[in-house]
Specification:
Beta-prop_IFT140_2nd, WD40/YVTN_repeat-like_dom_sf, four-stranded antiparallel sheet, five-stranded antiparallel sheet
Length: 1505
Amino acid sequence: MTLYFDTKIEFLDSDAVSTISSWHPSEPLFAVASFSAERGGSVTIFADTGEPQRDVTYPVHATSQATAMCWHPEKALLASGWEHGDIHVWFAGHREFASVNAPHKAAIVLLQFSEQGGRMVTADAMGLVTGWRCDGQYQFLTMFSHDLREVLLLICFRRTVESEVREEMANLAKAAVAGDENALDTLTNWRPRTAARSMTHSGVRDNHCFYACTQGGVVFYINQGGACVEVMKCGSLPPIVQMLWHPKKDAVICLMEDLTVTLFLVESTGILTELDRVKMSGRGGGRQGGIAWSGNSLAIITGDLFVRIWDIERSDNYLLKMDLPSGNQIGSSLTSLSNGTISSSNQFFSHESSTESSSVPRKTPKYGQISGEIFTCLAYSSTGQTLCAGTSLGNLFTWKRSGSRLVSAPEDAWQLTNISSVRGAIRSCEWGFNELAKPCMLVNCLSNVFMLKEQPLLAFYTRELWAVQGSAKSVQLTHCSGRETTVQSEFAVTAMALNELSLVMSNGRSISSYSLQKVERSLDEFDEILEAVEGAPPTSASTGTPLSVKLLQTFPAECLSLHLYNQNIFCLASSDIMVYSVGGVVLHRMQASDIEGKIIGMDLSGCYLSVFTMNGYVKAYDVSRHDPKLLFPSKSGHDIFDDFGEFILVKCNSLGSHLAMVIASSNFTPISALFCWDFERNNLLEYDLVEQETSSRKENSSSSLPVRIFWDAEEPRLLAMEVKSMMQMTLPQKNSPQPSHFVLSKILLLFYSEKGCLNILETQPMSPGSQLLNLCVPNVLRLKINAVEEQPLQDFVDLQQCDPVTRKRVLNFSLHVAEGNMDMAYRSIRSIQSKVIWTNLAKMCVHTNRLDVAKVCMGHLEQARSVRALRLAIEDDDLETEAKVAVLAIELGMIEEAKDLYRQCKRFDLLNKLLQSTGHLDEALQLAETEDRIHLKHTYYQKAQELREKGDIKGALEYFEKTQNPAQNITQLLLENPASMKRYIQTTSDPKLLKWWGQYIESSGDMDAALAVYHKAEDWFSQVKILCYLGKISKADAIARQSGDKAACYHLARHYENVGKFQEAIMFFTRAQTFSNAIRICKENDFQEELWTVASSSRQRDKAIAAAYFEECGNFKHAVELYHRAGMLHKALEMAFESQQPEILEIIASDLVPESDAELINRCADFFCSIEQFQKAVQLLAKTRHLERALSICMEKGVPVTEELSEMLTPEKGEFDEAIRVNILVQLGEILQQQGDYHSATKKFTQAGDKMRAMKSLLKSGNTDKIIFFANMSRQREVYIMAANYLQALDWQSDPQVLKHIVSFYTKGQAFDSLANFYAICAQIEIEEFQDYGKALTAMQEASKCLEKLSHAQHAYNNLQRTVADVKAILEIQQALREGDHQLVIGSCRSMLIKPELPPIRHAHILSMLVRALVYAKQYPEAGRALKELAVKDNSWSASGLLDRGIVQRIAQECDLDFDLIWNSGRQVTASTSGTAVTGMSSTSALTTSDDDEADDEEITEELH
């Protein structure tokens, strides 16, 4: 709440009356021109205190008065124009007014400075306009002069549209909030005191161009150089009486004499282009109207008691409300003002005035019509976003634009806050600033001038007493016992302090101290307080006795701020702190050094005084003693903070250990954070408001500032902070009346912990108009307009009247809970019986998952049902931990937390149930459709029930349809309204619903209508039922046949049976699959053919019944078959045996399985054997796994075993004992071998594990590839040898692979004797067939290697070595023959021929080489004799190619022999048996058996197969 204190300006001449006035734009100075009959005209300069400036000689003229005044926009320079044409100028620091030589001969009517003061323009009543330039020596030089020959009404300098640089400098102390340049003004009224004031226009070029408007309607534009151009001619528009420059663009807004408001666009040359025009309606002309910029809108008065706001950007306009807020306790209404009540000097008026007229609603239009009061002037303060308007009766209306709330209409953003009254009609009002940069208002009436200072409502609170300013001079004092009194002061109170003993007040220049009588509480008063707490009406006894207050002393003292400790008064002056006693005696003077600067702020908490200075130093004192004691050396803020500009607030806690500080940054912008400095440990704690709000709120907070802070009076860890946040609207509409920003206020309760951090205890919202007053646990104190409100902490809701011990315990509990220390919190309150405390602890358990502590808490809350629900949840092992905690949250009413917990553990079924129980069915539906589809129909049902209860039948029907069970739900819903039911049924196609409706109609007897509904629902049974009832049998028969519906067929069959149509009844009973009824009719009427047909497709029980009937009738064929189909095989077999039906027996046997009765199987097999059907018997036995008997029949009867039968006779692993299984496989293999199926036999022998027999069987098959494969896979020595022996019998000379396998198998089987013999055979073949002794030698060498590995083959090895030597000798002979050494060849051959012939060496081969050598040596006779010996040795020498034909011809020619006779004698073929290369080696290998891998057996079996 804001008050305005008005001070009447006293002139030096008491008889003088004011004429004109002006307040400096940026300095706490204002000037007033006056006129008296004795002294004449004068100009006086006043300070912001209302006192004239000292040491100044003010100009006085006996016959003339000042007619125009203007302050320099940046310097303390006042220019005044006088009635006789003189111009006087005063400079700050000068005693005398300087006179300026001017060309004016008439009264100066206009005097204006440019935007930065570089150009001054004066105009007189004759139309002479002069431009001046002020140099650095304060000399004014004439720049131009124009004689316009017409009286000027106004001069309007061109202004520079604000650039980014200018905006930054102009808003140096403002928060950077997008879209609202007055954000800092909205959040806090703090202004930097260490920053320079005159920085507004630095860096911006001054503009000397201006418009001059004449009384005749002509508008001139004078440019930068002083050239004058006419931009608007006379008669085109009415004369302009007021012109304002647009704050955001190059445009001017003009008020015409006919109350037309016109917006002109200004070009660079000064040409005006009309953009918009609005004609206002009013009583007077334009000279009685007025316009003023109110932010980005234009405020307009038109000679009546209305203020209209024109929002140019949104093209919207509205009237400001003239009604004061209702429910005020103090203040005066306009009704009292209309009765002639006039305020005296220093009287306070506001919208909270006396209670006499507070209930009378104010009707401004009626009042304006009765009294003739009109608005005469307007002024707007951008700092406080305040608009004031003065009236012709001396009333000053003040509106404040609030950004702290959302409004539905733009006019709701403006609130009428004050109506002040001064003497006389108000001619002008103007805003200015005092020394503390607080807004002030200068009001110029007809004869007097008043200065109104804006002052916040004062209030002070202690635990026992509190004081609230009731008016400018009155303070309402209240005791906690209910006693109160009103203290009337001699002056307007601007500062106040209070304790239990004293009250002190000040107006800034003097201090008054009051003594308070100490109030002792009696037992009766405690009872009254207890009754008040319990809700009983208070008695008048407690409030009947007022508090006793006695004025002690009033003494002069400069005072900016007051504090009180015991009987000492601490008074902050302009530069130091004075300590007075309550009697006015100076006790101490506390000063700061030159380095620290003057003291600009102080605060007292308990006995600790905190002080901060102009140069950014902070100190703290202990004032509990006679002399204040400094707690720590003064500390600079630059040493404490990284980014520091100035201290805003500094407060010390009650323990004297921590300082809570709010500071501004180096660019003098408040920092959105609270700092807590532990100066004993030099530890700085910080709580960042922007960071915390960003993480906890969804809205975008543009700026947050701490406004007020208070430490608790007793708990040193706890403090309260009032925070204002500028919140940004999400997606604001362009033309929406809603502001783009709004202000939220709240109180944060913080505490510092031992861990060295600031934690938040709780947050309390604040309503508009409230402010934080103090913190006294258990309450947070607020000032709501002019009333003190107590808001308990959340843990003290039911403990406001508690003793200090309990209060301490509960506070400790709150702090421990905020830190998350559940154990310490529980220990703090074990003995406290407060449901709020236990509730808060239980809620904390939700966040910490401490279910054990929660059970104790719920027990203290005496919530048996909740304890039981929590216990059941804990014992339920199917519930997740989060789900169990959610149960606790639900019992505590923490529904949102329970939802989050269910989502975390993905128990959407429980979440759906919770949403339904809490009435959030739309959210439950969305959840069921996406996550919990198993309960979707139930959720639809609950939603339908909700809509049904609300009367939304259409919506309920929609959701009942989605439940897919509409018959029951919808019929109950619409049953009371048959017409609605019928209409709904006609549009639905649900079969269940239509069937129900058909039954409903049928019950009413309307069979035709019911039949139509049944037809639509496709209910064939109901149709057949009604048709049978109506006797329309043919139609019923057609429907039953066409639909095939079982119920319809059954009903029709019963009808046919009742009327004796048994054939039709049997047919429909069969279609209805009620075979027992059809069989019953067939038996009753001896329909055997029909019975056989029905029984063939009936159930087994019915087949057995029919079979028994056929047995009685002697129809054994049908009986056996039905018994067989009914699964009664024994019965079927016995009857088949008796009736000799082998065909049926075969069918029965085909259905036998291994699980069938063994006796039954054997009987079938015996039967097949008896009729010599051995193949069928074997197949039956094989199928039923009687394998041994099946094999015996095969062996005895010679049953051929096919491949399919062989597989059937093969036992599976694990089917029989292993020995029996092997025996069966061996028998099966022998049978297959006997039948010549060697491959299958090999497979069975392999499955039996007998690889030797398998190999023998495979050898008989002669399949070389499978033999090789089987040998490789078997990995048995004997198998290898058998395979090699087999391969050796093949044509291995022509197939290298076979030769390779022979060698490999002998090697793998370790049969080195056999391998050596094989190599010997190879050598013999090479010699006999190819005469290749080289390859023979190689084979013999390999044989020699094999014999080396045998210990018992030494004799054979020796013989082989001798043979090898002979072969080598023959190879040497052949080499010598090739080289031509014939004599060596002849000698070697004859020596070899002397030896006896031992295989594989043949003398025929040696003789052939001897013959060739002799021929080459030309010893032809010897050659002939050798040839003769060759013919004797080998009669096929020529045929075998031992000698060439040419050699023989030469011998015959040289020896004169018959060539033909010789040659033909060697071509005789005789049976010559080549001796076998007996090596004398015997096989000494022993047969060894090894266990083969079953996997190899199977692979061999498959390959052979």
